[in-house]
Design brief:
CATH topology of the largest domain: Alpha-Beta Plaits
Number of strands: 4
CATH architecture of the largest domain: 2-Layer Sandwich
Number of domains: 2
CATH class of the largest domain: Alpha Beta
Length: 147
């Protein structure tokens, strides 16, 4: 990975809507060379896609909770069942399998604390795979690279 590739990735990560001409001018390549590089980064899978970053609070998701979940069993079927349940829960924006004292870290976005209570007790709390739940309510984010 050379400087141009790093510059392309940095520029697109900060503004995925840059036109190829703007991107080329910003990093110091011709538009055709820049386009070839971007296309190769897309083909290789390093650039997975482009999308809009939404202000979730304007959509009603005013409360962000980071939830640490320990599973009651450590079989592959337990992890699969839990991940399937989390994939179906619209409140769960991210589900990470982690190392340490628990198996999963979730980023949950809900409208209110009451809505989180519902998620905690009626969605997580009824899963037989869940052995422990620890909730951390976000008070704000000083850095968020998602946008």
């Amino acid at each position: 990975m050379d400087r141009y590739t790093e510059d392309i990735l940095h520029a697109l990560e900060n503004d995925g809507r840059l036109s190829n001409v703007e991107l080329a001018a910003r990093i110091g390549l011709s538009p055709s060379a820049c386009l070839r590089r971007v296309q190769e980064l897309e083909r290789s899978g390093l650039i997975k896609g482009y999308g809009a970053v939404l202000d979730r609070s304007q959509l009603g998701a005013a409360v962000t909770v980071f939830v640490m979940v320990g599973l009651s069993g450590h079989l592959k079927k337990d992890a699969r069942a839990f991940e399937t349940a989390m994939a179906q829960a619209p409140q769960v924006r991210e589900c990470h399998n982690i190392t340490g004292a628990v198996e999963y870290l979730l980023r949950v976005e809900v409208e209110t604390l009451q809505a989180y209570k519902h998620f905690h007790s009626d969605i997580l709390g009824v899963l037989p795979q869940v052995g422990s739940i620890t909730s951390h309510i976000s008070l704000g984010s000083s850095k968020d690279m998602r946008g």
